[in-house]
Amino acid sequence: MLIEIRPVARLRGEKAIDITPAVSEMIGALCEDSVDLAKVRLVCDWVQYKHNFRDVVDVRQISPGTSADQLEVAVDLRRAKDVDLRAAAREVLGYADRPDLLPRMPLEHWTAGSQSCIWDFNALYWKALGEWERATGQMYESALPGGESDARNQAAVRDLISDMFRIWDDLSERRSLPEELYVVELGVGNGNQAKAWLDEFVVMDRERGTDYYRRLHYLMCDYSQHVLDIARKNVTDHATKTSSVILDATKPTEALGFLRFKVFLVYISNVYDNLPCDDVAQIGGRHYLVETRAYLNQPDAEAIAKSISVEPAEVPNQISRLLRLGPELLAEASPDNFADTDAAVEFWRQCWQAVRLAERYVPIQGLDLYEVAPGVTGEMLRPQLEAGGDIRIHVTNGAVASFTDTIPLLHPFGRLVCHDLFTTDVMQNRTGFRGPGKYDGSVVNWCNGPLLAHIGSRKGFDVRFAPFAHRKGTNIITMTAQVRD
Amino acid sequence: MADTNGSAPRPPNQLLPTTVVGSYSVPEWLERLKTDYYQHRLSGAHLEDIHDVAIKAAIKDQEQAGIDIVSDGELRRDNDVDYVLAKMPGVEITNTAKAFYYDYLDCAITAPLAGPDTAVLGLAGDFQFTREHTDRPIKFSFTGPFSLSSRLRNEAYPDSAELVRGIARMLNAEAHELAKSGATLLQIDEPFLAGYPEQVALAVEAINLVTKDVDVTWGLHVCYGNRYARPSWEGHYNFLFPAVLDARVDQLILEFARKGDEDLALLGQFGWDRAVGLGVVDVKSEEIEPAELIASRITRALDVVPVEQLVINPDCGLRHLRPDVARAKLRAMVDGAASVRANLNAAPAGDLTVFPAAQPELDQGEAQNAPTG
Question: Which residue of B has its CA nearest to A382?
Fold first, then answer.
C-alpha cells in the first residue's frame, strides 16, 4: 500500500492538523475489507474549496477491467472530522469492484474531465450570468479571491503601460512602430479593467506627449454578450477607441485572425482557471488519463426531483435540458415543473450545489496520441509526467488552447500578461489540491504553469511567473510571455 | 539514384523554376530525437543515421511535389546559427546541452578567428550526401556572416565589423570547398539583417567576401525572421536598397506571401536586374494557399520582374510546418507556377541567371538520368 499525503505544509506550525485519526480510520477500513492491500494507493488531500466536486471518501479504479487493476482511495482531510470516516470508507470500498452500483445518479458517461457536463454548467453560468446574479443578489466578482479582479489594480496597470510605452518609443525611434496599436483583453468582467487601463493610458500618454492614444485600438473580448454589454457601458468615455468582440477564449484567432503578429498587449485576468481541463497521471511508470463522470448522490437527486415534481430518474434529463436551453427557455418549455425563470434558476443552483465527479484512471496508449489542445500533443506533458515517481497533473487544456491560439497574435515585441491561479512547479501537484472547485456558478482549476512555459518555450517564447506584486496574501500569479531571442 | 517517378528530367532553363529556401519540415518525432541528443540520451551516431534517413525522405517529398531545385532540408542542423558556430574553431560554448534542440546556444569568441586555410565546417560533406540522393539540381544554403555574428558574444574584436569579416572569410573557404564538391547554387541566408537595417552596408561587404572567387550561382535570402514560425521583426525591404545592389549575388530571395507584395516595386525602383526568388507561400501559416492564389502572386510579380528572372519559392524555410502541410504547400506552389507557365506566351528563355551555373560531374549511371542542358 502506498499512502500519499499531499497537504504537507499543514502538518507543521501553529495551526498544524493532526491527520493521524483520519489515516488510521482509512487504514482500518481498508484492512477490514478484502481488497488487495498491495494494490491500494491511499491519497489524502485537503480540498480547500468549500464548494467542490468531491465526496469525503471516494474510490477510483486504475486500469479498470485489466489485469493491472489497482485501486486508489481518496479522502478529503478537511472534511474528514465531519463524518464517520470508517463507515464512509466501508461504503465506497464495498463497491470498489462495481462502482457503477454506488447509490449515485450519473449525469453522463465516463469521459475526459474537459468533456464533462460540469463545463456545460460553467458555460451556462457565463451565458446566463444576469439570471444567476439576480437570484443570488451578488455580482460574480464577489466570488473572486479578495472580492475583485486583480486586473483593475491601478499600480499594476501603470507598470504595464509604462513597459509598453518604452517598447513603442524604441520602435518609433527606429520608424518601426505600426500606425495602429492594438491591445486585446480576453475576459473583460464588468469593464472595470478596461476603464482603469484606458483612463490611465490617457493620463500617461498626455504626460509624455506621445499621442499614442490616437493610434490605440482596445478590443474587449468575452464569451458572454451580457458581460460585454455591461463592460461596454463602463468605457463610454473611450467609445471611439474600444470595440467589443464575442469570442471563445480558447479560439481567439477565429475572431481576431486579422491581428496576427500585430497585438502589443494581450491582457487576461482570471480566465484560464475557468477553462476545461483534463487530468493525467503517471502511476507505476504508466501514463493515465483521468476519466470523470458527473453524478448526484441519490438523496440529493431525490430532493431535487421533489422540488420540481418529477421522478428522480427524470432529473438527469431535466439537467440536460437546462444546460441546453438555459433557465429562461427551460421555464417556458416546462411550465409544469418551473413556475418561472427564477424557479428554473433555483433548480440550476440546487443541481450545481449537488453535482459531484467520480474518477477513474484509463491508460494512455501513447502521449503523442493524446491531444492537449489543437496542434499540441501529449508529448508536451512528458517532462512533467516523467519528473520522477507517481504524479497527477492538470492538463488545463482550455488554457493551453487559449494560450497557443493567442500568442500568434502578438507583435514581435508584444507581450501576453495573465493574472490567474498557476502552479509554477510540477511538485506543487504533490503538495496541494489544485482543483477543480466551484466558484459561485463556475469551475475553478489551477493552471499548469510549467506546461504553458514548456509549450511557450517550444514556440519561441519566454514565459515567466511572479507573484502578483500589487496585493498581499493572494494566490494570484502574474504570467508574462514574450518572444525570446 | 533518385526515383524520378517516370517523368523526364526537367529542362534546367525552364521558366519559373520552383525551389525551396532551405529548411524542410521537422516532424515532432524528429524534434524529440534531436532533443534527446542534446540531453545526452541519444548518441551522435544514431542521430546521424536518423538524419540520413530524414534527409532522403525530405528530398523524396520535394521531388514528388515537383520541386525543380531541391535541398537537404537542413535537417542535420539544430538551428540556422549553432550548426555553423559550433564547428567554428575559436568559438567557445560552455554548455552544449539544450532543453530543446532548436534553442540557441550561448556562443562566445575570446580571440580573433584563425585564418581560413581550409574548409572546416563540413558543409561540403552535407552537400555531397544530398548529391548522392537526387539527380535534381540542388540549392545549398547557409547562414551568412552578419547573422552568425549576431548570435556570437564578441570578446575578441574591438570592432564587431571585424568579426563579421572574419566569419565571412571562413565561409568563403567553405564555399570554395562546396563548389569543388559540385555545388552550383549556393544561398546565403541573413535572417537577422532586417532587425539591424543600419548595418546593411556591412552585411553586403561581408557577403562579397563570402562569394569572392567562388564560381557558382549565388543567392541571398533576406526575410523578417522565422524563429518558431514567427517574424522577429516587421518592416519593409527598403532598408536593403540601394546597398544590396553592390552585393555580388545572382538572386535575391525575399518574402512576399505573408507581407504582401507592396515591396516588389522596390526592385524596379532601384533597378535590380538580376534574378528574384519570389516568396509565394506563407510559411508561418498552416493554411494551404490554393494554386490559383499562388499563380496570382506570381502573375502580379511579372508586372515588375521579367519572367526569365523569376524563381518561385516559399517565403522562407518550411521547418516549422507539419510534414503534411509542407508537402501540400509545395504541391500548390508547383501547380501555381505551372499554371502561370502554361499561360505565358513568352519565347523560350535564353540565358537564365536563375539556374545553377554548372552541373556536377556524375558517374555514368547517374548521368543517364541527369538533367541536360
Answer: B32
Q: How far apart are the first and last CA of chain A?
A: 49
pLDDT tens figures, B251-294: 999 999 999 999 999 999 999 999 999 999 999 999 999 999 99
Packing angle of the helix pair A20-32, A85-93 (nearest 10 deg): 40
CATH number for the region A140-275+383-483 comes to 3.40.50.150
pTM of the model: 0.86
Chain A interface includes B64 (CB < 8 A)? no
8 Å CB contact of A459 and B228: yes
CATH class, domain B28-363, is: alpha beta
Pure H helices in chain B:
28-38, 44-65, 82-85, 123-132, 145-150, 160-180, 200-211, 264-269, 291-301, 323-343, 364-367
Name which of A345, A338, A456, A472 is nearest A407 in CA terms: A456
CB A416 within 8 A of CB A425: no
What is the β-pairing status of strands A216-222 and A242-246? parallel
User: Are the Cβ atoms of A368 and B28 closer than 8 angstroms?
Assistant: yes
Q: How far apart are CA A200 and CA A478, in angstroms?
A: 20
* Chain B residue numbers touching A368 (CB-CB < 8 A): 28-29
Give B32's contacts in chain A (Cβ within 8 Å): 379
Integer Cα distance of B88 and B163 in angstroms = 13
- ipTM associated with this complex: 0.75
Backbone angles phi, psi at B38, to 5 degrees: -70, -15
- Delimit the domains of chain A by residue range: 1-102, 140-275+383-483
Residue B29: CB atoms within 10 Å: 12
| Residue written as grid cell 502552479 | A423
Q: Where is pLDDT greater, at B12 or A467?
A: A467
DSSP tag of A187? S
| Beta bridge partners of residue B227, listed in sequence order | B230
DSSP state letter for A342: H
**CA B311/CA B326 separation, integer angstroms:** 19
Cell of A468: 502578483
Quickly count helices (H) and strands (E) in chain A: 16, 23
SS3 for A154? helix
Helix (H, G, I), strand (E, B) or coil at A477: strand
Substitution target from B230, B258, B284 for chain A, most A beta carbons within 10 A = B230
